Amino acid sequence: MAVPGYVLKHRRTTFERAEKFISSTFFTDVNLYGKLYPLRTDIKGIKHRALPGLITRHSAVTFEEAIKGIYEETRVGASFGPTWATHWFRLDIEIPREWGLGKQVVLVWDSGSEAMIWRDGKPLQGLSPDNKRTEFVLTKSLDENAFSHTLYIEMECSDVFGAGKGGLINPPDPNKYYTLRRADIVVKDPEIYQLLLDFEVLLDLIKHLPEESNRSYQLLYGVNEMVTTCQSQSNYSRARDIAHTLLSETNSQSQHTLCAVGHCHIDTAWLWPYEETKRKCARSWSSTVRLMKDFPEFIFACSQAQQFDWVKVNYPSLYADIKDYVRQQRFIPVGGTWVEMDGNIPSGEAFIRQFLYGQRFFEQEFGKRCTEFWLPDTFGYSAQLPQIMKHAGIARFVTQKLSWNLVNKFPHHTFWWQGLDGSRVLTHFPPGDSYGMDGKVEEVMRSLNNFKDKGRSNHSMYLFGYGDGGQGPTTDMLERLTRLKNVDGIPKVTMCSPETFFSTVETHEAENLCSWTGELYLELHNGTYTTHSRLKQQNRRAEILLRQFELLSTLSHVVGEGGGRKTDYPAGKIEQLWKIVLLNQFHDVLPGTSIQEVCEEAGRLYEDVLREGSVLLADSANQLIDTLTPQGGCTEHGTARIINTCSWQRSEVICWPEVTLADRLIEMAGVTTQAGRDGKTLVFVSDIPSVGHCELRPAVKLPVPVTVQKQGDDLICIRNGHIEAAVDKTGRVVRLCMVNDVSRNVVSVGSHANQFVIFDDVPLFWDAWDVMDYHLETRTAVVDIIEEATIVESGPLRATIKTSLRISDKSTICQYMSLDTGAKYLKFYTEVDWHESHKFLKVEFPLRITSPQVTYEIQFGHVQRPNHFNTSWDWARFEVCGHKWADLSEYDWGVAVLNDSHYGWSCIDSVLRLSLLRSSKSPDPTADMGKHKFTYGLMPHSGTFQSAGVIQAAYELNEPLVCCGQCADHSSTAASYFSIDNSAVILETVKKAENCNSVILRLYEVYGGTTTVRVKTSFKVTSAHLCSGLEDSLDGAIEIEDGNCLVLHFSPFQIMSVKLTLGTTTPN
């Protein structure tokens, strides 16, 4: 009987027929998948080396070391560990001759963990069952020379995402063992593999095209015909022809185009330590290079100079391959930074150093710089990043993290991002909302459907490849995308570089795009401003220490050259220390969202920088003062000297450090002193020159002494010439006012400033990352007194009140509230012994201020955010990031809170809160536990915060004067190497240029206005040029007055770098 030419089709059964035909689970005895591996045999020669020293945590054993010694037999089913251990295996593979020639033979290895294949000392490919990469092609066509193979496998005892015990972000299980589940060789039929991919892609199209569309049914009937055709293996080629015909029906010219870019986001540390990332890079990039040999159109984008440098040092043969593909413009360095850093917490100078050292590396290694900033996975983006990018020569930006917003959907995918100063960068968020897609039709359609800028732009990026833990693109992904190049019904998919994508948009679509002004605030992960507070404190101190060390080293070098006493500039050491700090600013380290081991290592690295940097700072200070010593030596007694690294004159109380002859030098100077509560000497120093130094000397006129006294049974009053305050028994400020207007109390009526408060802190999932809005409903004031407010220092230079509070039966606070003579703010030296679980400690300041906006310092400027919850965009920002200060002001009156180490803030209804400590338990159960010491300040002011000196006060709180006892020429008692005639501009950086003997100044406008300033230097200025953050000379002449004064014109919040050639100096 003849077979009918048609059969009525039921959509579901027809679709599932094809699904089952390629299933790896169902009917594999008769379906197509079951024929993929026709021959298989176990590997007989599996040997394992387990000598002492080889099974070590994060083993740094080289291949040469690993292959030495005796390997012992092991087998499938054996287990290896513990967590983070490294095991090496030798595989002696013999392919059975009866398999015959011409076959593709594949090694299958599944140890349940990450691994890497080595041969002849070269890393060949990474393996990871988590990312479906368990196969390694031994030969594509078996010949007489390919029956025997010897391979080595380096097995890492962790999953691709570490070893969380019972969950992704749980703390690692330290005793996890991994079982060798499979080690065999198979024949893989390439024709069947290609046919399986044809089926998979076609079924994916049917599933995600509109169900009732003609195209969907056309594909369904075609796939059904393919299944029927495959009843005989001799017809497989015909089935492939059917697939080719279906996939060759192309789109119209108007169809949206996806620029497919291979990508492998590797967190420099996260659920694994830095040392493991080095191997993740090798596993991932060796696999990528191997794929490039098979897919000539494959383009791969890769960021983070630090990771390139690690591969260069540890895997030179792989690095040579990478450099070759970079030359071919297929392995494309992107980003331009040392690491993918956090986008909120680092200082402005640290951001610039990320680009400086990153771009220098890429230029030195590959002969070119990156043209786009690449930061897909950080937790929000500072409003100054567009200007910093432009200052580093980059005008394009790629990220996708704002797709994680919890409340509001960001309205654009391709747009102009305008920064604080008006700088604009072309910005793209891949609309697939991921940097790790895998070539599926669903992702392609999502990219089109999500795209918010339809009509304005017809192009977007599609980033594919396994990420976070690495591994990157796979053969399956590339095969899928090859089939989806130009298929009717879906966007066009073309492999191209980020450069090609951005150039297309700039040429054809840029004028159509919308703009977004200000920060890109991520409505999630805002607990990261506070988690692991100690790391953030170390980072702040390291940034400031390096600034001071670099400045004094530069001055010492220039002054020494001018005086014929040349000193070596420690360029190598400065770069080394900066790169450690930049490494720790990676977006899962500085935010505190990594495992305990990572945070502990980061802490040790910071301590190394602080310890070594402190010694180097002291050396550079002494070296600078030495340049003033007569050539024949100093015959008089030494003098105590003070160095000011800020660009304005300073007068303040200092605690003299423990240095040789300190007490004698202070006594000789005849200055006013006070014995401090810690046994050190307090000294009032006055008129310390800007970016300069002078000997310790009596003040021409001392400020009004500070006084403190009890007022009744409940209050203590403290006062100097600027402010006065009343403090209750718990250390809370009940009254704070200016001395010239005592009737105006800045503390809200019936409230208390400096009130410690604790909140429940239980997020939905991301423990170390998130603080949720509902935590605000759980406020509890800390009022349990251990020690009532007591006067412990009574002036005349400093008065201090001590209080101790109990947070819980596990945690306590001890605080010293101080007011110095001449100071405009109260200081709160705070010690917390913290042992909580899922609690959040803040200090709050209810202020008698009416204003809709709060001002917060950020990198090189400040931003305003709402003091209300009017809209969803407002209340989504219930916790925000700020740096050294925040200010709430109304006309001609306001209050600022300063701090030396914290970044989390909130303000609603004029209650300003500084976030102090969290107590998350995943991924680090010890986060923030233990003892903490930090300082914050409370500063009432008249006028604006700009005119009141809030910005300078915050600098002074964070950047101590440098003290030294040193012999010096008394004819030069003071020197100011740089000074600025306008407090609206701050000299942030003084450094020696990277590639010449010039000096780089980095300044910025801090008030938010247009201004002209004169920067006077004690050096003769031979030449002055504007330059970029990368120190490239820019167009634009700089006017020089009197041979030593630069006339500079600033727009609001402008960052300016100046390259100077300097002559001799005469300290003034």
TrEMBL record:
This protein's record includes keyword Hydrolase: yes
Keywords linked to the UniProt accession: Glycosidase, Hydrolase, Metal-binding
Domain Glycoside hydrolase family 38 central: residue ranges: 523-606
EC numbers: 3.2.1.24
GO molecular function ontology, one term from the record: metal ion binding
Entry superkingdom: Eukaryota
Pfam families per record: Alpha-mann_mid, Ams1-like_1st, Glyco_hydro38C2, Glyco_hydro_38C, Glyco_hydro_38N
Catalyses which reaction(s): Hydrolysis of terminal, non-reducing alpha-D-mannose residues in alpha-D-mannosides
One BP term from GO: mannose metabolic process
Family (UniProt): Belongs to the glycosyl hydrolase 38 family.
Name recorded for this polypeptide: alpha-mannosidase
